[in-house]
Specification:
By secondary structure, the chain is of the alpha+beta class. Helix content is 42%, strand content 13%. The protein has helices at residues 2-34, 78-88, 100-113, 123-132, 139-155, 158-168, 178-186, 195-202, 208-211, 217-233, 239-247, 264-277, 295-305, 357-365, 399-404, 409-418, 420-429, 453-464, 499-514, 568-583; strands at residues 49-53, 59-63, 286-291, 314-321, 327-331, 349-350, 373-376, 395-398, 450-451, 468-470, 475-480, 485-488, 493-495, 529-534, 540-547, 550-557. A hairpin with a 5-residue loop joins β4 (314-321) and β5. It is elongated.
Length: 589
């Protein structure tokens, strides 16, 4: 009986092993065949090629779209295709996913060395690794890679596999795919690359961190020349073309005259806004997007952000052209090249005293005069007992004097007189209170509720535009490749405030800058309308001000809501520094 059990057990073992291997292979086949490239997170696909320009027609960014896998009409340029085939996989069109000679050679080298030293991977195997695996150097991964490669060759034709490869290969400096490498290294579309530039990009494939022209230009050129030599030997280019490409000087993106904007978050925001405008229109393959950004102002604002310290303290700045709503400057961080968070749009922070303009405006609408008196003394409303930030109290003061000193007592007294609902309704009409819904608490009047920099700056922009609010836009127009108009911005304003009321509000704002808490923003001989704001513990530091037809808001703070040792006066001073830079106004340091 025991012998029968033992024999049964011995028979079961190979059956289980075979079943396990079969299931594993089936799982690989099923996963590969069902794979949807459009949902691949590593492939940051762009729907269209684009060129983004500034308001004065200077190039901000350009990027070719990824190659369309299922569109045979979307062809890979000849030199680009053959530079990678020549340098990475010479028999690409002849093998069925794996090159047995290369694998045998690599296997022999690996056995000799005692560890995985050489890969012997075809382009198809590299695609398998890029989309399904990782870069672990192990025999197990290599076996998976071979299986997946065979399945890929069954599912796709050679040109599709090559497109998958060129769309996803990492080429250093954050560039996934040749379209991004073209942008990162040369600031060009794929179609604009020279043979020399194509060869340099192809030469990055084996080790982008080692061969990067930003790290070692001599080594990058040496590798480029190897690719050109290989292309010549394989018959893809003539001797004349090879020699001409070798002699060509490499001009990297940061060395070019127009120097593209190194701010992915800003560019992505422009593209998101463009997508909204063309959502229901034709399937465009190329767009010329004219943004409203003033490149010179943008660069100056970015430099000014570097004055903010310590290192972790963050900064955001937004400039809106008041009579159009066009965004002329948008700084989302001190470090735009590595920044992942839009502090102008996504960050909702307590507004502090910048919100006080709303209860004061509501008071003026209700007929309260600038000269009307209010008590600026410590008091409580039920259990709520606010204090002035300075802890100074002025007794009986006029409305305009209370705004100048940024009283916390008077705005709450106003709300008790005219009702919080009036305050909320006015704030809503300005576009506030939708990021964080307002509730009827007295502290609302002194900015305890949160909003983003875009919306609160647009309130001040409306006041600077005679009480008429515009919808902020970062786009001026969108055109096709042939300069055919697709979309153009329309300036539609909505009247929020009566002109007489608006003039009185501007008197409040002018007084705040001339004599009050916003004095750090004052510029001799200039009429500036603005207000500082500070949240509890100096966690959020604001200044929003207008000069001529431009309204600019600044926010300073920690992302983790930590207390700051700076004051809103620092935000006001940086506003002044920025304005002085863009308008070339001399100011005392």
């Amino acid at each position: 009986m025991q012998k029968i059990k033992f024999k049964s057990f011995v028979l079961i073992i190979p059956i289980l092993i075979f079943s396990g291997i079969s299931f594993y292979i089936y799982s690989l086949i099923f996963t590969t065949l069902k794979f949807d490239i459009s949902k691949n997170k590593r492939s940051r696909a762009t729907k269209y090629s684009y060129v983004i320009s500034s308001s004065d027609n200077r190039i901000l960014s350009k990027l070719s779209r990824k190659f369309e896998i299922d569109n045979s009409k979307h062809k890979i340029p000849f030199f680009l295709k053959n530079s990678f085939i020549s340098s990475e996989d010479k028999i690409f069109y002849k093998h069925n996913g794996i090159d047995l000679k290369s694998i045998s050679r690599a296997l022999f080298q690996n056995i000799r060395s005692g560890y995985v030293k050489e890969g012997g991977s075809t382009i198809t195997q590299q695609v398998a690794r890029l989309l399904f695996l990782n870069n672990d150097l192990s025999f197990q991964r290599k076996i998976k890679e071979i299986f997946i490669s065979l399945i890929l060759e069954f599912k796709y034709d050679k040109n599709q596999i090559l497109k998958l490869y060129l769309n996803n290969i990492y080429l250093g400096s954050g560039a996934y795919g040749v379209n991004e490498a073209s942008q990162v290294y040369f600031g060009k579309l794929i179609e604009e690359l020279t043979l020399s530039e194509i060869a340099l990009i192809a030469g990055l494939a084996p080790a982008p961190s080692i061969y990067s022209p930003y790290q070692n230009i001599e080594l990058a050129i040496k590798n480029r020349n190897k690719v050109l030599e290989s292309m010549y030997i394989d018959g893809y280019i003539s001797l004349e073309k090879k020699n001409k490409a070798i002699k060509e000087k490499i001009n990297l993106n940061y060395q070019t005259a127009y120097n593209l904007l190194d701010d992915k978050l800003l560019i992505n925001f422009i593209l998101e806004e463009a997508d909204k405008r063309i959502e229901n229109k034709n399937d465009y393959k190329f767009l010329r997007i004219k943004s409203s950004i003033n490149k010179d102002w943008q660069e100056k604002a970015q430099k000014i952000s570097r004055y903010v310290g310590p290192k972790e303290l963050e900064f955001a700045l937004l400039s809106i052209e008041s009579n159009t709503g066009l965004i002329r400057t948008m700084v989302t961080s001190k470090n735009p090249s590595i920044n992942e968070y839009n502090r102008v749009i996504s960050s909702v922070r307590p507004l502090g005293s910048t919100f006080k303009i709303i209860p004061y405006a509501a008071a003026l609408i209700e007929g309260i005069k600038l000269s009307d008196k209010f008590e600026d003394l410590p008091r409580c409303w039920e259990s709520y007992c606010p204090k002035n930030f300075s802890e100074e109290y002025r007794g009986s003061v006029s409305l305009i004097e209370s705004f100048k000193s940024s009283s916390n007592i008077v705005p709450i007294s106003i709300t008790k007189r005219i009702g919080l609902k009036n305050i909320i309704n006015l704030a809503n009409s300005f576009g506030l209170g939708f990021k964080q819904e307002f509730k009827e608490f007295p502290s609302l009047a002194i900015g305890s509720y949160g909003e983003n920099l875009l919306n609160i700056t647009n309130v001040y922009s409306a006041i600077n535009n005679s009480g008429k609010i515009q919808s902020p836009s970062i786009l001026e127009k969108i055109e096709s490749f042939n300069n055919q108009s697709i979309w153009k911005t329309k300036f539609i304003s909505k009247k929020i405030l009566d002109l007489k009321v608006n003039k009185k509000i501007n008197k409040l704002l002018e007084k705040s800058v001339k004599e009050g808490t916003s004095k750090a923003a004052s510029i001799k001989g200039k009429k500036i309308y603005g207000k500082t704001g500070t949240s509890d513990g100096n966690k959020d530091l604001w200044f929003i001000g207008s000069l001529d037809n431009l309204t600019t808001g600044i926010w300073i703070g920690y992302d983790d809501n930590k207390e700051s040792e700076l004051s809103s006066g620092n935000a006001a001073y940086l506003w002044k520094k920025y304005i002085a830079e863009i308008y070339k106004i001399p100011i005392k340091k």
